Amino acid sequence: MDLKLRDKVFVVSGGAKGIGEGIVRVLAAEGATVVLIGRNETDNKRLADELVQQGWAVDFVTAELSDPSGCDAAVKDILKKYPLVHGLVNNAG
């Protein structure tokens, strides 16, 4: 299936496990650059490293999104590296 996501940037909150992980995998397989946000650095790194080894463009930011300052910091970190974001999947919670 071609969702025409190549060269698009997507952010997936709660992206390291469960449904979020599945979303990250599908977006990456469709050619998108995916930035996952999660609160557990180890889980984030595990998934990002696995998918990068498969040749997919995946990055991560570790943040506690239930805290407004965590949200602000995550957004700033992402926009510094990826100034144009095409989509957001808010899966955290």
Number of domains: 1
**Spatial extent as radius of gyration:** 12 Å
- Quick one: CATH class? Alpha Beta
Strand order within the widest sheet?
A: 3-2-1-4
State mean pLDDT (0 to 100 scale).
96
Describe the structure.
This protein has about 90 residues and is of the alpha/beta class. It has one domain: Rossmann fold (3-Layer(aba) Sandwich). Helices cover about 40% and strands about 20% of the residues. The chain contains 3 helices and 4 strands, in the order βαβαβαβ. The chain has helices spanning about 20-30, 40-55, 70-80, and strands spanning about 10-15, 35-40, 60, 85-90. A 4-stranded parallel sheet has the order 3-2-1-4, with helices on both faces. β2 (about 35-40), α2 (about 40-55) and β3 (about 60) form a beta-alpha-beta unit. The mean pLDDT is about 95.
Could you give the topology of this structure?
Layout: E1 9-13, H1 18-29, E2 33-38, H2 41-53, E3 58-62, H3 68-81, E4 87-90
Parallel strand pairs: 1-2, 1-4, 2-3
Q: What are the main properties of this structure?
A:
93 residues, Rossmann fold, 3 helices, 22% strand, 4-stranded parallel sheet, alpha/beta
Give me a quick take on this structure:
With 93 residues, this protein is an alpha/beta fold.
